[in-house]
Amino acid sequence: MNGRFVIVGLILIGAALIAAAGRGTLWFDELLSLQWARSAQQPWHILELYRHDNNHPLNTLWLMLAGEDRHPWIYRGLSMVSGLVVLVLVWIAARRLSQQFAWVPLFLAATSFPLVLYASEARGYAPALACLLGAWLFVSARADRGAVWRVPVFWLLCLGAIFSHGTSLVILAALGVYFLADRRAQGGNWVRTLGGAALWFGVPLAGAVVYWSFFLRVMIVAGGPEYAVPQVLAHFFGYSFGIPGAGTGHWSLALAGLAATTAALVFGRFPDAATRVFFAGAVVVFPALSLLATDTTYLYFRYFLVSLPFVYLLAAPVADAFRSSAPVWKMAAGFLLAAVVAGQIPRLAALIGQGRGDYAAALTRIASEPAAGRKIVSNTELQVGFLLAHLKRSEPHLDSLILVPQARAAEEVADWVVYASQEDPPAVPQESLELHGDIYRAVSVHHSAPVSGSHWTVYRRAPASAQK
Fold it and tell me: Would you give the DSSP letter of residue 52?
């Protein structure tokens, strides 16, 4: 199962999924970053003017360099290329943990709904993952011996991760602990070990301090749905391993996921103690400490995405530890992998088929009936406004549509209502709704894949004779 054709095949499958998921209209979070990229006059304005949690600076810089009115693949290009790099690096990292079972983490990563989702979205998560995996490979190779050029490359990888997404600091902290533990285990005294740590981590640490002081410390969190920590962990493990109903059974799923992760850390066959320490820090200790150190009012499973490749990598030492076990255990492991993929398929299919929302079709549905009016009101005015403005740039037939601000909705009667939601699974929309005394009937529903994007239900104002 560790043949080259299997590895190449898995990487190609993952790349194909990323490419297919990268099609379709940009959604609100991507468009918000694109708007900042368009408004910035100079690259440093990205950090100076837009201190917002949706501004992932390296990605926003890419959008700025990409220019105006590009294909979604261009805007998502940095993430898509990074996603492919992540797959290759997962395999390389897995080989250091287990030559025989390096394909298992790659199998999980290539078919992972969260990795495919964020590797095909114009945000900073995929570049952060690629940089972090590269940094881990450099440090775990003890590359400071006889290869001075590797240290500046390590600096660039760490800085790339930091400026891709601030949650990268969790993994960089684990890398620092690994460096100290590994160099001490190699027989270095504390003076030499700390000197090596200063050489390798001095520049990344300075970059982290500047980034935190100038950006993260004053960053605005725009808000959103509020999730308890157990629910966020349930989302993380549910989406990561294809478990249906990721938003239900919060405590049981969260505890089961943490128990499985802890068991992998305890029973996995790692090459040395320092590596075990690193993985414990990357997937448990430092993510937990980040919860204690930050405001968790608006907490999402994607904030732990930087740990996900390392969670998948745990499968290699676990498989290696049980490689000589009875056939029944091998059959159980095979069944478990098959179950994970089976659980990922529906979400991947929705991502490829529905994308992050079919907003162009919803607005075209409205524009196709000019006699019914052209005024729209929505429960998510800002999102619909961004999407309408973006689509008007390439869809001239939408020029006549007008978004009525909610503050004027009572005075200026809207002809249409666009109701948006991000529920997973989506709720069955109401057949009709009432707004300021007027009745609106549902005429079309436009679904989105889970997590990113919104489900839109289009309502048309009922004729005067049907208002009573």
Answer: B
Q: CA-to-CA distance for 425 and 402, rounded, in angstroms?
A: 30
Counting other chains too, the contacts that 387-393 makes at CB distance below 8 Å and 24 or more residues apart are 387/25, 387/27, 387/28, 387/31, 387/359, 387/363, 388/363, 390/25, 390/26, 390/31, 390/34, 391/25, 391/359, 391/360, 391/363, 393/69
Which tokens belong to 385?
Answer: 């406004």
Strand partners, 441: 432, 460
Q: Residue 307: name the closest of 324, 319, 290, 295 by CA.
A: 290
Residue identified by tokens 């959103």 is 224
Tokens of 12: 């190609």
Q: What is the pLDDT of residue 46?
A: 84
Between strands 432-435 and 438-446, the pairing is antiparallel
Rg (CA), the chain: 24
Structure tokens at 275: 């590596």
Cβ-in-10-Å burial (0-12, 13-18, 19+) of 395 comes to middle
Most confident of the ranges 181-185, 275-279, 299-303, 333-337: 275-279
Class of domain 359-466: alpha beta
pLDDT, residue 466, reads 61
pLDDT tens, position by position, 405-428? 988 888 888 899 999 988 877 788
Average pLDDT of every residue of the chain: 89
pTM greater than 0.85 (yes/no) = yes
pLDDT digits (tens, 9 = 90+) for 62-91: 999 998 889 999 999 999 999 999 999 999
* H helix runs in 111-189, sequence order: 113-119, 125-140, 150-164, 168-185
Sheet holding 416-421, edge to edge: 402-403, 375-378, 416-421, 455-461, 438-446, 432-435
Domain residue spans of the chain: 4-354, 359-466
Q: What is the C-alpha separation between 242 and 152, in angstroms, rounded?
A: 38
Alpha-carbon gap, residue 188 to 355, rounded angstroms: 52
29-38, 40-49, 94-103: least confidently modelled range: 40-49
HSE-CB of 354 using CA atoms within 13 angstroms: 22
Dihedral sign (CA 345, 346, 348, 352): positive
* Nearest by Cα to 126 from 254, 14, 206: 14
Mean pLDDT of 224-247: 82
The span from the first CA to the last CA of the chain, in angstroms, equals 68
